[in-house]
Amino acid sequence: MTDGLRGKVAIAGIGNTRRWHAPGRSAYDQLEEASFLALEDCGLTLGDVDALYCAHSTSGLPVLNVAERLGLGPNLRHADGTMVGGASFLFHMRSAVSALNAGQCDVALICYGSNQASAGGRLVPMPDPQPYEAPYKPRYPISSYALAAARHMHSYGTTREQLAEVALAARAWAQMNPDAQERGPLTLGDVLGARMVSDPLSKADCCLVTDGGAALVLTRGDRARDLARPPVHILGTGVAVSHRQIAQMPDLTTSAAAISGPAALREAGLGIKDVDHAMLYDAFTICTLMFLEDLGFCAKGEGGDFVASGAIAPGGALPVNTNGGGLSCNHPGMYGLFTVLEAVTQLRGDAGARQVAGAEVALAHANGGVLSSQATAILGTAATI
Amino acid sequence: MMPEDPRFDGPGPDARWQAALSEGVFTIQHCDACGAAQFPPAVTCRACHGGALSMVSASGKGAVYSTTTVRSREGAHNVSIIELAEGPRMMASVEGDPEAVRIGQAVTARVAPGEPPMVVFAAEGAE
């Protein structure tokens, strides 16, 4: 059915501003620089773009703002401003794959920028009142993730020490990435002793708050082969939506990654054991642990033991969040695109000291809202086609 | 001009829920077709997708499904997810010492007056 889409579209170019604290630059400045870099990376220009995909936490009309700013309007043949939080950009990838395959466009730009750190230093959620939750004053979004973590601990005996292992693994990878913001030493004691924010999650269980800009250029695979960089093929994508408010999540210990992951693997014709490298959106330590389980890297309830074994840290069996993740590299409000940037960097063999030897298949997984939207992409080198 | 469909006349479900709460009554919905209990309220049933729902008084009985203590300079307060005896879950707070709230604990609802009034829970057997 969907097997026909496998590998037909490729990521031809990537752009990353690497500006995690950039006072004086707007979100659109970050987005535009990243878009320019991504097009330059593959030898194209903004004049070649005929499809635009973007989402913002500060604008309900992202496509209009970006199309005007980048001068894309006259050439646009396809666009999608789906906003499902940090996973939006992987939803956009799926949309772009369909449009490119249908011949509705030829060069798709997926882009994002944020100045949330320099503009205020905290996550700025878009106005979206939740009258059945707001009166109880949960801290958004951490309390929602804390409720999921507390239930996971209750059901499976997961411990704060095991959650801390996620933060320690991310930091160990970050120390091999010159672009990572936090590269200093971090101990188990540091994580466990950090200020508690919403039990059982402390400040050290939370992602960074940074600025940043990221962009991808997608074309059909045949065209990508003629461009400047080795194409990274999109072998499969899967998306899933389960709730808006955390109290309405069907099972607080299982996310809809259990739907998006298998869907993406089915489209790719691969199994989870074929994945050499994984990027799992780590807004909080509990996210990495749950997604390892929900995607099938380990059984439900065994995520704690899995991370405590050292499996996801440098030298472990499964390299996860090799850029340092949202916990130690960067997290500009919506981080989804950065999971794909690092996966592409690894599959191109460009990851330097943190390079995963022989990586051919990467899984990029993004989360949005409060474990609300989940999207998975399976990417592969030319050898996988 | 076509008349509006009388099945959906009157205030919407959110407004009716708030109006009942203002009278001190905690309500949930009951599906006339499949019998499912539903919260938060909506026009259609999320279980069978039918369009006929009644607003009924909740039993007020439930159990803590998950819980967190939210900490700030102003102090600490409880935020929990309560699984109602009828089935649906809701966010709420459990009164008393936030650190004493436990997953699985039986709780009972009351409507705390205020602007807006709120459904809050107390541990069973507590004052």
From TrEMBL, chain A:
Thiolase C-terminal domain location: 238-381
Molecular function terms from GO: acetyl-CoA C-acyltransferase activity
Protein name: Thiolase
Organism, scientific name: Pelagivirga sediminicola
